[in-house]
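Journal club prep — side note

Before the paper discussion, L.F. wants everyone to see what a predicted structure for a comparable chain looks like in token form. Sequence:
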Amino acid sequence: MNVTLVLFLIVVGITLVITGWAARRTRTTVQFWAAGRSIKGWQNGLAISGDYMSAASFLGIAGLIAFNGYDGFMYSVGWLVAYLTVLFLIAEPMRNTGKYTLADVISYRMSPIPVRSAAAFSTVAVSASYMMAQMIGAGSLIKILIPSLDTALKPWFNWTVLGTKLDPSITLVGVLMMIYVIAGGMVATTWVQIVKAIFLMGGAVLLSFLVMLHFGFNFGSFFDSIAGVKDSKSGLNFTQPGILYAYGKTQVWGVDKALLENVSLGMALILGTAGLPHILMRFFTVPNAKAARQSVAWAMGLIGSFYIMTTFLGFGA
């Protein structure tokens, strides 16, 4: 049997066991929506990291660095700095409201009907965008790494919806996600994300170790080799800014267009993170405001370490 398939089935089995355990513990509304507000700060920090260190980060950021060098790395810097906004402005007030959802918090001080409608629309829009990216990424990996599983799934998921034939691997990922959430609620979601964070951190550490092993753990040699590679279009080496954003070439209203693009990107990453529904709802799961702040501190440490390692993964590629 394919080793990759065995590992995949083991991971799915572990997460389904966690979901079954969580389902038996979930009996009340607060347990389903907020895990009974019993999640410790470090556990919630791991879960936030698992939410954030997704396939988009593991593959996307490494890919951006591999193709765009320094400019690609700035994405990870923006996402990490964003958690300072969450720490100082969002975490404690969110927890102190004692609510279940983002709409509950906003409608607490505003007219509830229009606010809840707007919050519901934005939550569905953002969550659907994230979910589709994750499902497509995970499904594509299954097809590449475990083609036999994709072939075996075709008779089971040979459906057509609105004239579009469903992809078996992507459909499987979607079904698993629904099982985790519907059966286990926030308890299952939290522990599945914790397991995911551990696997992602472990994978990043292992791959970073292998990259640096190739260079004899000599950081100078590692970055010297990167500086010796030039981008085919811009002619810049990968440690220089300008591959993704062409500095000094185009101006808008008398300002360098690349500078405006960087400022726009930074604002989107920093302020956007503070409004992500799947991140904000995690602060309802902890017992108090202190634990909410601890959650962000743990998440920043783990996410920061992870993004540093994506530098080795991206440049190593």
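L.F.'s comment for the group: The radius of gyration is 21 Å. Keep this in mind when we get to the figures.
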